[in-house]
Structure formats: structure tokens, C-alpha cells
Write a structure and sequence with these properties.
By secondary structure, the protein is an alpha+beta fold. It folds into 2 domains: 244 residues, BirA Bifunctional Protein, domain 2 (2-Layer Sandwich), CATH 3.30.930; 69 residues, CO dehydrogenase flavoprotein, C-terminal domain (Enolase-like, domain 1). Helices cover 40% and strands 27% of the residues. The N and C termini lie far apart (65 Å). The model has no long low-confidence stretch (mean pLDDT 95).
Length: 331
């Protein structure tokens, strides 16, 4: 199998490369990072529902909607991407989804551990250090191929990610940033800035290629040929167009954002004649773990205590119903 260590590339090429390889039906492992920051959405995500598009335009952040799953993420050159493309009929591809992820995320765990970061697989498809997420993972089918993509995170800009997110209120944005800072980690956070800075991108490429070779077999270094570059050009015409990026789906009430495996941030709002009631809560394992309430003309501390007393421990659906009932009682 071929190894394509592309280095830093224009932001769009950091996504187009693996898409084109898969559409050509070729296998390979791509290693790269983007020269410029951008925002990447999952295949079925609506940018108008996920992002603060006005902010993205104002700061010049480009958008890309990929053909694989996963959520919205802010990407920059502080992340080294690995992108694995396998044909579906490859004998290495297991039938069971959980085995697929455990087999092909093991090299990422091994690369982190070689750096001194105590990473582990967080089933089904995340890599974590303790309870903190340290890799973003996306997977899907493109043409005749299966694609698994992710990164080694030198650092992650939680402030930038919180700013690009569509937030129904300032309180939601602040809580999302705090939740990310508490539940995400990076090489810099684990090893310290001096040790992280001493690790070159080439060293990270070497660790990834050596680790993936244990799962994929020998990897032969190769470069991009004309057919691959032409395929990227054709895909750019489609995937960078507004028609592709601006995917639309039916809006859902409230707001729900994933922080890490099993941990979500929710917003529920109930309009009343006196103004909107807003509940913000986090859920873990489907149960509310933290909660707060906001309402016009109501005592903040009393609302906070009531939220903790009446919402924590409920299922997400029960908590949403309780907030609506409380707002209607006080209307």
C-alpha cells in the first residue's frame, strides 16, 4: 500500500486528496496538515444550523462539507491529519464495525503513546486520555472505498471552535467553550509546550507511518500523479460550490452539540408572554449531569438551584419536558 506524506498543503487539498483517492478506487494512507485554518462539516450537516456563518465570513474562514460522517470541527496546522482509504473488498476490512475501529485506531493510540501521551481507545470510535478526547475521527464510504480519517492534535483552539459554532445564546457559547476545555486535550497539554514544540511534523509522520504499517502491512512512499491531481480538480468544482456546501435539512427545536463520546451540551427554550425561558444542560450517558436555567425577571441563584434540584438525573427528554412545564406554570 502507498504512503502519501504530503506535508502542509492548501486547506482544500487536505480534504480533496483523500476524497479523490477514494473516488479513483485507490488505497493508501495520506499524512498532511492544512496551511490555513478552515471549518469542516460532516456529510449530513447543515452549515446554517451548525455555524455562525456571519462570523465565518467576517474572519475569512472557508467551509468544507466532507463525504464522511462526524461533526463540525475547526481545523488548522496545529493538527496533523491521517487519512486511510481502503477498498471495501480488502481482506483487512473486518465485517464488524467495532472491530474495524479498534483495529485501525490502534495505530493512532500507539503513535500517541510513543510520544509519552497515555492515550486509549474510547469505544466505539474516539481516542482519549483519561476522560478527555484527543483525536477527532470521521468515517464513511466513498465510491468503492471505506475511509477513516483523524488527527494527532498538537493543540486545539477551543476559543476559535466556540466562536464559529452557532450558539442560541452567549451563555450557551461560554458553556460550550468551558466544556471543551475540560473534556479535550492535546499533545501540548499532556507534555507541555517545550516538549511539544520539540516534536517536528516529520516525527509525527514517522510515528504514524510506523504504527499504521503494523495494521496495514508495508507502506511504500509515493507522490501524487496526474490522474489523482485531475480528480482533485474535478471534485473541487463540486465540493467547493455553494450548492454542495449549503446542504439543507429540517431544523430541530433547541440545540444539541457533542463534546466527546457520551457527553453532549443541550439548549431548550420555551417562549412565554414575559420572555423566553432557557435551559442549558449537559448530558452523559443520556442523563442530565449539570443544568442551569435563565428567565427574565427571575432570581438567578434561585433558578440555578432549581435546575440542579429538578433536572439533574433526568433523561434528556424528561428534562426538556420539565423545562417547558415550568415555563408555562410561571408564564
Amino acid at each position: 500500500m502507498h504512503l502519501y506524506a504530503l506535508g502542509q498543503v492548501p486547506w482544500q487539498d487536505s480534504q480533496l486528496a483523500y476524497h479523490a483517492l477514494a473516488h479513483l478506487g485507490r488505497e493508501g494512507l495520506i499524512l498532511c496538515s492544512p496551511q490555513e485554518p478552515y471549518v469542516c462539516l460532516g456529510y449530513s450537516q447543515d452549515p446554517a444550523q451548525e455555524l455562525d456563518l456571519e462570523h465565518c465570513r467576517a474572519v475569512g474562514l472557508p467551509l468544507f462539507r466532507r463525504e464522511v460522517g462526524g461533526g463540525t470541527v475547526y481545523l488548522d496546522k496545529q493538527q496533523v491529519f491521517w487519512q486511510m482509504v481502503l477498498r471495501r473488498d480488502n481482506a483487512l476490512v473486518p465485517r464488524r464495525r467495532e472491530v474495524f475501529f479498534s483495529r485501525f485506531l490502534a495505530p493512532v493510540v500507539a503513535a500517541y503513546r510513543a510520544l509519552g501521551v497515555e492515550a486509549r481507545l474510547a469505544p466505539p470510535n474516539e481516542v482519549a486520555v483519561g476522560r478527555r478526547k484527543i483525536a477527532g475521527i470521521g468515517a464513511g464510504e466513498i465510491g468503492e472505498c471505506l475511509v477513516l480519517v483523524g488527527n494527532l492534535m498538537r493543540s486545539f483552539d477551543c476559543a476559535a471552535m466556540a466562536r464559529v459554532l452557532r450558539a442560541p445564546s452567549p451563555e450557551f457559547r461560554r458553556l460550550y467553550r468551558r466544556s471543551m476545555e475540560a473534556n479535550l486535550t492535546s499533545i501540548r497539554r499532556e507534555l507541555g509546550p517545550v516538549r511539544e514544540a520539540a516534536v517536528s511534523d516529520q516525527a509525527l509522520y514517522d510515528l504514524l507511518s510506523q504504527s499504521f504499517a503494523q495494521a496495514l502491512g508495508p507502506l511504500t512512499p509515493a507522490g501524487q500523479d496526474q490522474a489523482w491531481q485531475e480528480a482533485m480538480g474535478r471534485l473541487a468544482g463540486r465540493m467547493l460550490s455553494p450548492q454542495w456546501i449549503n446542504f439543507r435539512r429540517k431544523a430541530r427545536p433547541g440545540r444539541k452539540v457533542k463534546v466527546r463520546a457520551g457527553l453532549f451540551l443541550h439548549q431548550v427554550q420555551q417562549d412565554t408572554p414575559r420572555g423566553p425561558w432557557q435551559a442549558l444542560f449537559t448530558s452523559e450517558g443520556g442523563r442530565v449531569s449539570e443544568a442551569d436555567l435563565y428567565a427574565p425577571g427571575q432570581d438567578r441563584e434561585a433558578l440555578r438551584q432549581r435546575a440542579r434540584r429538578e433536572l439533574v438525573g433526568l433523561s434528556v427528554a424528561q428534562a426538556a419536558a420539565a423545562v417547558r412545564a415550568l415555563a408555562e406554570q410561571r408564564a
